[in-house]
Amino acid sequence: xxxxxxxxxxxxxxxxxxxxxxxxxxxxxxxxxxxxxxxxxxxxxxxxxxxxxxxxxxxxxxxxxxxxxxxxxxxxxxxxxxxxxxxxxxxxxxxxxxxxxxxxxxxxxxxxxxxxxxxxxxxxxxxxxxxxxxxxxxxxxxxxxxxxxxxxxxxxxxxxxxxxxxxxxxxxxxxxxxxxxxxxxxxxxxxxxxxxxxxxxxxxxxxxxxxxxxxxxxxxxxxxxxxxxxxxxxxxxxxxxxxxxxxxxxxxxxxxxxxxxxxxxxxxxxxxxxxxxxxxxxxxxxxxxxxxxxxxxxxxxxxxxxxxxxxxxxxxxxxxxxxxxxxxxxxxxxxxxxxxxxxxxxxxxxxxxxxxxxxxxxxxxxxxxxxxxxxxxxxxxxxxxxxxxxxxxxxxxxxxxxxxxxxxxxxxxxxxxxxxxxxxxxxxxxxxxxxxxxxxxxxxxx
Length: 446
Hints:
The N and C termini lie far apart (67 Å). This protein is mainly α. The model has no long low-confidence stretch (mean pLDDT 88). Helix content is 72%, strand content 7%. It is built from 17 helices and 6 strands. The strands form 3 sheets. The protein has a two-stranded antiparallel sheet. Strands 3-4 form a two-stranded antiparallel ribbon. A two-stranded antiparallel ribbon has the order 5-6.
């Protein structure tokens, strides 16, 4: 295989693996804020032990996220040196800001959360939990800024073949920053809520212990999950409209739209035939793509026939990834509404089918995040930075394919070990439990 293909595979693998952890920790961080608030207001051991339990799971995942993120960024200097030379002056700035303004904030106050028990006041501990959540959310903002600039570059000018910043605010709030940021943050809250929800259901259904802890955690995470899943419908729609206006060939790929149409149908699913440039066995809603994108039935939606073939993205991978993500999103809405209805009727704890479903739902938001990322990144191809530099031209010219392959294999082995370590540590802490006693439960009842 060529070096450029191997470099792409390596970057996709390392970023995809890293992307398991930030959404989880962002979501858990905000849930921890609420729990720390309860401890701050009540001073009860129950809430202290509940918070410390979820904090342990957060910390394990945070550590894995940091380790994988560091390794990921080294590739810009090894496999993608031309990319770094051409756009590094702009792309590197938000990455540096993420480290200076966000990561240090998050990691510093995480240290307070881990080692401050009994040493600082409950108020300081609550503030520390809030700062961890704010830091993680700010960290995501700077990363999204960098990636969004690759999708819809703005605020720059080309000088001697190098992109130089000409308008900071235009680059910061480029056309896709805010839609993609809020879409990602809501996805992170969904991931954290489903994670807590599934583990709480596991306590009730399988371990059959720590009932009050599991019920309180499950109720909180279910309420949050229901709200954010409903919000995500509008966030996803906002992001899709932005793509339609700024990256129309990506929208065409994600919708399997080869021929421009007015009005254009919305494909619920289908089979992409790239060789013959068509989507067969398609299940469609007539005119809905035009209506949802432009608010009328007259505007033409650009198909792939509007673009030169060498500027078209692959179709199958963005199409399937996008539709799986959307399908999972609506499944989340249905499942959480069902759970909220059971909670309202006070029948949730006895519904074994729903509890079992919550357990099996734990990995689904992770998959939705990954498929959304695949649709966004593959849909940008053949551009590393949209309309500025092609991916094939961004790779390092001095790194041979065999060296990339060796590092890819090593990354695979190390990351496999890290994944199993993550699962092992989570499982160990879950089976150990929060250590809540009968006396702690009685205090809550009083």
